[in-house]
Amino acid sequence: MLRRLLFGLIIMTVFMFGTGCQRPQSNVEENGSPPKTVEQRNEQKTEETAWTFPLTGMPAKEKAMQRAVAVMINNYPAARPQSGLHKADIVYEVLAEGDITRFLAIYQSEQPEVIGPVRSARDYFIQLSNGFHALYVCHGWSPKAQTLLKSGAADYVNGLFYDGTLFWRDRSRKSPHNSYISFENIKKGAEKNGYAFEEEVKPLPFFTNDLTNAVKATNIDVVYSKRSYAHVHYAYDGTKYVRSSGDELTVDRETNTPIAVENVFVIEAIHRIIDDYGRRDIDFTSGGKGYLFQKGTVQEVEWKNVEGRLLPYKSGVPLGFVPGKTWIQVVPNLEQVQYE
Question: Where is the composition biased (Basic and acidic residues) (predicted)?
Answer without folding.
Answer: 38-47
